[in-house]
Amino acid sequence: MVESIVLSGLAIGCIYALIGITYNVMFSASRVFSFTAGTLGMLGGVLGSLFIARMGLPVVVGFALALAGGAILGIVTEIVAVRPVLKSLDQHLYVLSTLALALIVQEFTAIEWGTDARPFPRLFDLARVNFDQQFWLPMLACVVVIVGLELLYRHTLVGHAFLAIAEDSFAARALGLPERGLRMASYALAGVIGALAGFAGGEMLLAFFGNAPMLTFYGFVPVALGGMGNNRGAVIAGLLLGLFQQAANFLVGGIFASVAVFTVFILVLLARPEGLAGASLPRRV
Amino acid sequence: METPAAQLLPSRANALGTANIVGAALPFLTLFALGVTFPLFGGGYWGVIATRACVYWVLVSGLNLVVGFAGQIAIGWVALLTLGAYTTSVLTAGNVMAPLSPYLALAISAVFGAVFGLIVGLPALRLRTFYFAITTLGFATIVTQVALAWQSVTGGGVGIAGPIFPPPFASKWGFYYFCFGLAALCTWMTANIAASRFGRALTAIRDAEVAAEASGISKPALLTVVFLFSGAVGAVAGGLFASLQSYITPDAFTLDLSVLFFIAILIGGRGSILGPLLGTILLTVLPEFAAPLVAWSTFLYAVLLLVIVLAIPGGIADILDFKNRRPLETGRAIVPRPELLPRLLGAPSDAGALTLEQVVLSFGGVQAIDGLDLEIRLGQVHGLIGPNGSGKTTTLNVISGYYAQQRGAVRLNGIALPVLARHRRAQMRIARTFQTPRIVGAASVLENVMIGGTIDGEGTFVESLLSLPRHRRDETMLRDTATLALAAVGLERLAPVRADRLQHSELRFTEIARALMLRPAFLLLDEPAAGLSADEIARLGALVLGIARAGTGVLLVEHHADLIFDICHHITVLNLGKMLAAGTPAEIRSHREVVSAYLGG
C-alpha cells in the first residue's frame, strides 16, 4: 500500500508541479498570475483524447497537436487577457481578464466535448505491475521540463533574455530586448508545459473539463508555498502536496484529504504570505 | 450646532443635495414599483425567474460590499449560498434534530453565514489579489465536497428537501413577495452603507489603501464587519434558494453560480449599488429569453466579463453616470481662502511638539537616516530640504508609521509614538499627504475629502446599515466640514465632480483638504508643490501659512527652494541621512556648505 501511495502521490505531485511551473513561466514574463494555467492542463488531456482516441491519429501526431493547442492558448492568453491590462495601474484587472478567458475555454470545452469525464487512451503497451505508465509518464514529463528549462535558461541566448525580462523588464527593454516577443514566447512555452502536464496525467485525471478549476487551484498551491517564480520551490512543494494528498486519501478518505490540503494551504499562506521561500513585499509609499 | 457649510453656501448646497437625492433614488423607486406590481403582468414561469433574481440579489448585495466596494476578489461566494441552503434545510427537515420553524432556521443560518463569511474573507487581510481569489475558489470547492460526503446530515448526493415557509408565504406569489421584501431591504441597507463613512472607507481601502491608513481607517476592523454582513445575507439567500428549489443536491451549487454573482457586480460597476442590481437582473433573465442560451450562459457571462474588463472597466454604472460626462469649465483656478481655516481647524491644539531623537534607519547597507534630531512646533512651518536620496520622505514615512526606525524615537509631547501603527497616527491628529496623490478616482471630490474625517463619525456600522439618527448626524457633520475644507483650499466648485477628472494640481489641494479633515495638530506635506504652476505655488504657500497660523505644526518636504524660504519658520537641511544645517531661512541662506552643495551660487 505504501508503494502505491508513494507512486500515485509522486505522479499527481508531478502534475501539480508542472502546472505550478506553468504559472511561474507566465509570471516571470509578465508579473501576472493567469487563471488559464489549470485550463491548459485540462486542455492537454482533452485534446490528447480527442486526437488519439476519437480521431485515431498516431500517438506522436496527437501529442504534438495537443502541445500545439496549449501553445496557441498560451499566446491567446497573452494577446487577449494580459497585454491589454498590463499597462493599467489597476492591479486586479489581470485577475478578471484571465479568469474570463479561462472560463470561456472551460465552458466551450464543456459544451463541445461534454461534461462527462472521458477515458484517455493508453499510449504504450508495456505491461509492468505497479509501475504503470500513468505513474511514470507524469514523472518523465516533469523531469524533461525541469531539465529542459534548466538548459534553456542557462545555456541559450533566448534563455538569458527570458531571465533578464523576469529580473527587470524595464532594464531589459532599455537594453533593446524585444520584450513583447519574448513575453509571447514565454506564454507559448507555458502553454506547452501546461498541455504536457495534462497530456501526461491524462490517464490518471481523464479527459474532463472539470479538471480546469481543480488544476488551477492545486497547481497554484506549489507556487504559493514554493514562492512565486521559483521553479525549484514549485517542484518540491508540488511533490509534497501530491504525497500528502494521496496519503490522506488512502488513510482518511478523499473528502477529508481535500479539506486537509486546503487547511494546510491556508494556514501556511497566512503564516507566510510570501511562500516558504519567497521575497518580501515591495515599497508602498 | 453650527453648520458652517450652510452658512457658507446656503441655498445652493441644499438645492443640489435635494436634487441629487431624488435623482439617485428614482431608478430604485422605479424598480421597486415594478417589483411590487410584477405579479400583475408576469405570469407563470416568470414568477420563478423573478423570485430567483430576488434571491440572487440578496447574496449579491452583500458580496457587492466585498467585491465592488472593498475591491476584494472573492470569486467563490457560492460557498455561502451552499452553507445557508444546507443549514436552513437541515434545521427544518428534522433529520438531525427536532425540526425548527423556517424563520428561526433562516436566522440561525444567517449567524452561521456571518461566521463562515469571516473565515472565508479574513485571508484577504494577509493575501494579495490572486492569492485571495484562489482561496475563495478553494472554499467553494470544499463546501460542496463536504455536502456530498456528509451523508447523514446533508443526504449526500441524494439531497435534502428545502424549507417550506408557512402562509402567507407558502404560495408562489407569497414566496415571491417574501424574497422581494428581503431583496428590497438589502438594497436599502447596502445603499445606506454606500452613502456612509463606511462605504467611503471601503472604496479608500480599494483604491488608495495608504491614504485610508493615513486617515485612520482600520482595514481589519472594517473588513471584519463587511465579511460578517456579507456572509449573513449570503446564507439567508441560501435558505431562500433551497426553498425556491424545493429540493437541493450538491450539484445545484456549481461554480457557475459563483461566476454569475461575481460577474453581475463587475458588469454593474464597482462602487455602485444600482449597477450590480441591474447586472443581477440582467444575468438572471438573459438566458431565459432563448432556450438554447441556457447551456451557453456561463460562456456568455465570461465573454461579457472579458469585454467589460477590456472595454468599459466602470461597468453599467459608468454608462449611466451622465452628470460626469458634462465638460468641466476650462481655465479654472484654485483660489484658497485661508480665512476659513480657523473655523475649520477649531481651537489650536495643545499637543506640545513632535520630536525626532537620534532616529536611525538603514535599508540593507544604505543609511537612509543616520541619527536625525528634529523638532516640529505647533503653529510653525518646518521645512525639510536636501538633495534626492537625502532621507526627506523617509523621515516623513517614519513619523507617519510606514517605516520602523531601528534606533531612536519619535515623540509627540514627550510620549513615544508606536512604530508602524499607521492608522493610529490619525487619532493623534497627525495627518499627511503623498508625493503622488492617493485619491479614490471613482468617488466625487467631496467624498474624497470626507474620507479624511472618517474617524470623527460616532455611529456604528449597524447604525449606518439602518440609517439611524447618529448615522445621519455623522453624515451631515462630515459633509459640512468637507464642504468647508474644500472652500478653504479653493475647490468647492468641484465638489460633485469625479476625482479622476481633476488636474494634477487640483488633486494636490484635494489631498490637503482631506488631511485638514482630521483637524491636525501636525500636518506632514510630501512635496506638495511638485507639478504646480508658479501661481499655484504662491497660493499653496499662503494656504500652508494659514494652516500654521491656525495652530497646526507643518512639516514641509519640498524641492522648491523659493517656497521653502518664503514660508518656513525653521529649516532643516539633510544630506545622506544626516543633518547638514538647521536654522531660520536667513541662517540657512548664508550657510556656506548648504549654498555650495545644494542651493548653488
Features of the shown structure:
A: ABC transporter involved in vitamin B12 uptake, BtuC, 12 helices, B: alpha/beta, six-stranded mixed β-sheet, four-stranded antiparallel β-sheet, 26 helices, 56% helix, disordered N terminus
Assembly annotation:
heterodimer
Unreliable runs of chain A: none
Main beta-sheet strand count, sense and barrel state of chain B: 6 strands, mixed
Mean pLDDT of chain A: 87
Major sheet of chain B: order of its strands? 8-9-10-5-11-12
Based on helices, strands and strand pairing, what is the structural class of chain A? mainly alpha
How many beta-strand elements of chain B? 12
Task: Just name the CATH architecture of chain A.
Answer: Orthogonal Bundle
Query: What is the count of structural domains of chain A?
Result: 1
Q: Approximately how much helix is present in the residues of chain B?
A: 55-70%
Shape of chain B, please? elongated
Number of strands of chain A: 0
Strand content of chain A: under 5%
Helix/strand order of chain A:
HHHHHHHHHHHH
Task: Give the SSE layout.
The complex is a heterodimer of chains A (285) and B (601).
Chain A: H1 2-30, H2 36-54, H3 59-86, H4 93-113, H5 133-155, H6 157-167, H7 169-174, H8 179-200, H9 202-205, H10 211-226, H11 231-252, H12 254-271
Chain B: H1 4-8, H2 10-41, H3 45-69, H4 78-93, H5 102-121, H6 129-149, H7 151-154, E1 160-161, H8 172-194, H9 197-207, H10 209-214, H11 219-245, E2 247-248, H12 255-268, H13 274-285, H14 293-311, H15 315-319, H16 341-345, E3 354-363, E4 366-376, E5 381-385, H17 392-399, E6 407-412, E7 415-416, H18 424-427, E8 430-432, H19 445-451, H20 461-465, H21 469-489, H22 504-516, E9 522-526, H23 534-549, E10 553-557, H24 561-567, E11 570-575, E12 578-583, H25 585-589, H26 592-599
Parallel strand pairs in B: 5-10, 5-11, 8-9, 9-10
Antiparallel strand pairs in B: 1-2, 3-4, 3-6, 6-7, 11-12
Helix pairs in contact in B: 2-8, 3-8, 3-11, 3-12, 3-13, 4-5, 4-6, 4-11, 5-11, 9-19, 12-13, 12-14, 19-21, 19-22, 21-22
